[in-house]
Design brief:
heterodimer; A: 14 strands; 13% strand; flat; disordered N terminus; B: 551 residues; mainly alpha; 18 helices; transmembrane (chain A); Rieske_Fe-S_prot (chain A); 2 iron, 2 sulfur cluster binding (chain A); Cytochrome bc1 complex Rieske iron-sulfur subunit (chain A)
Chain lengths: 370, 551
């Protein structure tokens, strides 16, 4: 118990001036104190203290000078620093970007100090008016509209009106019709979905032989006997189509070597060669290349949306948004021992589309394996 | 130290010339001193506006060198690791801009950073407008324009991102095609028309290029102009405060203060973009290599604004229906269609319709020029937070591979958790936000009726300790007292128990129920707590407060 109880009755000094979530009362962000009140002729316009303004003017001038120097430095760096190698480009980027940033910042800071410390503080009031126009105006406008419509005869002459609408209808279709040739393949639209069913693996070489499997990147054919370490994996493209992106978008394969006992019933053994299995690399979800393979679990993972397929069991889906297994390509070897395609996939590869139907069931009913 | 007393000749001459021909004087007389209210949150939209200007400037620079062609060439530029590699002209010219044009890399990186700032600026601006109810009459049309702008900005981002034709940008195009082709009935046709045949073809980059540099920016420019004109004509909204009401606007004049501030803000935005382009590398296309549909790099991520679509594609469980069995038609890949269309549909349609739904529920047809503090319309704020959470979970799960790698958690489990969170998260966010809003309203009521805690403890003669409260500062109290109850439909039944017209059918009854929940005053500001009791210390809960969510 102290005896200065009475003094506490004057808490004004200690009252927080601000409640969280409410605007700061009157203080400027850059100014250190409330500006000296020096009302001008206009109410709501509070001029700054001239002495402070003079000090601020020097700060502004300094900022603008920085911009001047930085802009000149930019021009010099542009001339002096050449680009070409990643290192030189990086240096040039740093020099040009740094000086540009500095020049812009100098100008920006200068203007802010100018506005906040030299220009007056404003709290001007302007009236608002309701957006709607008054009744009289609305009436005049609607009268004018009716009058004009009558004068034009649009309502009175139905023949005119109807033929105008009739004329406009096909004309409106013209821009749509013009878009038909957006498809450059020049095939009838009914063939679109048919082309999605096939890949180039169904084609033959000029000599009439089946296409060989080629290692993506190196362009080498694959001798089955050389691809012999279980757990091995290759990204494979069709012979002769190494640079045909349209072909690759459907025909790229992922080739995996298994120990014979690892292959489960989902995989068609007749389509494998000595434990080597080929699946379409194009994910059945939205078509990203399912490029990641985990050797110990035999999981193929698509990095886009993480659809996961069991490579040992017909590449059936075990996780993620893909609804169908990666189609398996029937492969064998030619007389020289190189891997070849026995033919095309028996179901469409890649993302689903309306006309796809249940291609797997159809393939099964034809007696094949899917 | 001379000061200006008359318009200098150099300005007066051209001005009279223009006024003689355009009558510009009348316009300037009305508008030079147009008042702009001040609040930090009113500047968020300007970030987007200035980013758009930067995009136009840097984008034009890029077009001088970029070649939108998918013709295959052998790279022979100065980036050694790719020398001799086959690639499209688009990729080769993007590399040329990066390595062989002085300032080219800077401009390319500024363009990309400005694009991110553009979309981010639009998003935070939109959230500000939403949470303060600034979209209410008469500004609903400008709100709808804003939603269109955001949608177009996403399309602009998608088309731009695909142009360099590097491996990463190709992954985006591949996913786009996979989504388009999955659409029922028209998917195959749309895909063939867009890509000029089979994917990828050689047309998509020139086509995206015309969309990206001509059509979409043209529409954006027109809509942004309309957005600004409407803002100008309707005058900006203002925060509640001293001397501010629905019939006035308080602030600084356009000339000279607001003009200068806006100019400085443009320069700050420009400097921020230039600074990021200087010190933070973005999209190093030379590391990815040319696009081929046979390859992909792990950890591929889209730009942030596409992340929510990526996340929803990742979250969706496998689901495909064949409507007609084995026939050659009827495949519905729902695990693509639903995640690609539904979340974006919910968010964009919800945004566009919200002002009209709210008006229907509250029956409020008045003009509003003073914005609401988010806490004062708790249901709107909660709906907004639920939507943010929904979007946020999808966005986060768009990077679940990165999350799983960084935190060493199972990738599959991030997906399982996401599948639950995408539903539970928004519900939780709704409840928590609602309670927070009421809590904040209660604290406002406490400030108004009891005053502000002074930090001074006083001991009463009988031994009790109390804290002394003092009245809040004038402008703070005015800010708090700007609160208005959320309007409600007049749903009271008449004397014979018949509800008013339009409230009788099932839809009308739903409307009445929604209005009752949405509207009304939850925590009255000063109910039965006059200012005399400023020293009182007791809890501030009042009788009439809403407990509907805790009951």
């Amino acid at each position: 118990m102290t005896d200065n109880e009475h003094e506490i009755e004057q808490p004004d000094e200690r009252v927080p001036k601000r409640v969280i979530g409410t605007p700061a009362p009157g203080t400027s962000m850059l100014g250190d104190e409330v500006p000296v009140v020096e009302e001008g002729d206009v109410p709501g316009v509070t001029f700054q203290d001239e002495q402070k303004a003079r000090k601020a003017e020097k700060v502004v001038a300094l900022c603008f000078a920085v911009t001047f120097l930085a802009a000149i430095a930019f021009i010099i760096f542009y001339v002096v620093i050449q680009v070409g190698s990643p290192e030189a480009t990086g240096m040039s980027n740093l020099a040009l970007g740094g000086t540009l940033t500095l020049a812009l910042l100098g100008l920006a800071f200068g203007i802010v100090v100018w506005v906040r410390q030299i220009m007056p503080k404003y709290s001007l009031i302007q009236e608002r008016h309701e957006m709607a126009s008054d009744e009289d105006t609305r009436e005049v406008v609607s009268d004018t509209f009716v009058q004009g419509a009558r004068e034009s005869g649009f309502v009175k002459r139905p023949l005119l009106r109807r033929t105008l609408l009739l004329a406009a209808a096909p004309l409106g279709l013209v821009p749509l019709v013009l878009l038909r040739d957006l498809d450059n393949s020049k095939m009838p639209a009914s063939k679109f979905s048919e082309t999605l069913r096939h890949t180039v693996w169904g084609e033959k070489t000029k000599e009439g032989k089946p296409l060989r499997l080629i290692v993506e990147g190196t362009g080498q054919p694959i001798r089955a006997a050389d691809f012999n370490s279980p757990g091995g994996i290759l990204s494979v493209v069709p012979e002769g189509y190494e640079h045909d992106l349209n072909a690759l978008a459907k025909a790229t394969l992922i080739l995996i070597k298994f120990r014979p006992d690892e292959i489960k019933s989902g995989t068609n053994r007749n389509w494998t060669h000595d434990g080597i299995v080929a699946y379409s690399k194009i994910c059945t979800h939205v078509g990203c290349p399912a490029a990641l393979y985990e050797q110990t679990t035999h999981h193929i993972l698509c990095p886009c949306h993480q659809s996961t397929f069991d490579a040992a069991d017909g590449a059936k889906v075990i996780f993620g948004p893909a609804a169908r297994p990666l189609p398996q390509l029937p492969i064998s070897v030619d007389e020289q021992g190189y891997l070849i395609a026995q033919g095309d996939f028996n179901v469409p590869v890649g993302p689903s589309y309306w006309e796809r139907g249940d291609a797997e069931a159809e393939a099964r009913s034809k007696g094949g394996h899917a | 130290m001379s000061d200006l007393t008359a318009v200098p000749k150099a300005i007066a001459g051209p001005s009279s010339y223009l006024d003689d021909r355009l009558g510009a004087g009348n316009f300037l007389k009305r508008n030079l001193r147009k008042i702009f209210p001040d609040h930090w949150s009113f500047l968020l939209g300007e970030i987007a506006l200035y980013s758009f200007i930067i995009l136009l400037l840097t984008g034009t620079f890029l077009t001088f060198w970029f070649q939108p062609s998918m013709t295959e060439v052998v790279y022979n530029g100065s980036y050694a690791p790719l020398k001799g590699v086959m690639m499209s002209q688009a990729y080769a010219s993007a590399l040329e801009i990066s390595f062989d044009v002085r300032g080219g890399l800077l401009m390319r990186q500024m363009h990309h950073w400005a694009a991110l700032m553009f979309v981010a600026g639009m998003m935070v601006h939109m959230l500000r407008v939403f949470f303060t109810g600034a979209y209410r009459k008469p500004r609903e049309l400008n709100w709808v324009i804003g939603v269109l702008l955001l949608t177009l900005a996403l399309a602009e981002g998608l088309t731009g991102y695909s142009l360099p034709d590097d491996l990463l940008s190709g992954a985006g195009a591949r996913i786009t095609q996979g989504v388009i082709v999955s659409l029922p009935l028209v998917g195959t046709y749309l895909s063939f028309f867009l890509f000029g045949g089979e994917y990828p073809g050689t047309d998509i980059i020139p086509r995206f290029y015309s969309l990206h540099i001509l059509l979409i920016p043209g529409i954006l420019l027109a809509l942004i102009s309309a957005h600004m004109v409407l803002m100008w004509v309707q005058k900006h909204t203002q925060m509640p405060g001293k001397g501010r009401n629905n019939r006035n606007v308080v602030g600084a004049p356009f000339y000279p203060a607001f003009m200068a501030k806006a100019g400085a803000y443009f320069l700050f935005t420009f400097a921020a973009v230039a600074g990021m382009a200087t010190f933070a590398q973005i999209n190093p296309i030379w590391l990815f290599g040319p696009y081929t549909p046979a390859d992909i790099s792990a950890g591929s991520q889209p730009d942030f604004y596409m992340g929510f679509l990526e996340g929803s594609l990742r979250l969706m469980p496998a689901w495909e229906i064949n409507l007609f069995g084995t026939a050659h038609a009827g495949t519905l890949p729902l695990s693509v269609i639903i995640p690609a269309l539904v979340p974006m549909g919910i968010i964009m349609t919800g945004l566009a319709l919200y002002p009209f739904i709210e008006q229907w529920v509250t029956g409020d047809r008045r003009e509003h020029h003073v914005v609401e503090r988010p806490r004062n319309n708790p249901h709107r704020t909660s709906i907004g937070m639920a939507a943010i959470t929904f979007y946020g979970v999808l966005w986060l799960l768009g990077a679940n591979d990165e999350i799983s790698a960084f935190f060493h958690v199972s990738l599959n489990w991030t997906t399982y958790v996401g599948r639950v969170l995408v539903f539970v998260g928004p519900a939780l966010a709704y409840l928590i936000t609602y309670r927070m809003c009421l809590g904040l309203q209660r604290s406002d009521a406490a400030v108004v009726s009891h005053g502000v805690e002074s930090g001074v403890i006083k001991r009463l003669p009988h031994g009790e300790f109390i804290e002394i409260h003092t009245p809040p500062a004038d402008d703070i109290e005015a800010h708090l007292r700007g609160k208005e109850p959320v309007p409600m439909l007049p749903v009271r039944e008449d004397t014979s128990g018949i509800p008013p017209k339009g409230m009788r059918g099932p839809l009308g009854k739903l409307r009445a129920r929604m209005s009752k929940a949405y509207g009304g005053e939850k925590i009255p500001l000063d109910e039965g707590h006059p200012h005399e009791e400023i020293e009182e210390h007791a809890g501030v809960g009042s009788e009439g407060e809403d407990r509907s969510l805790t009951r």
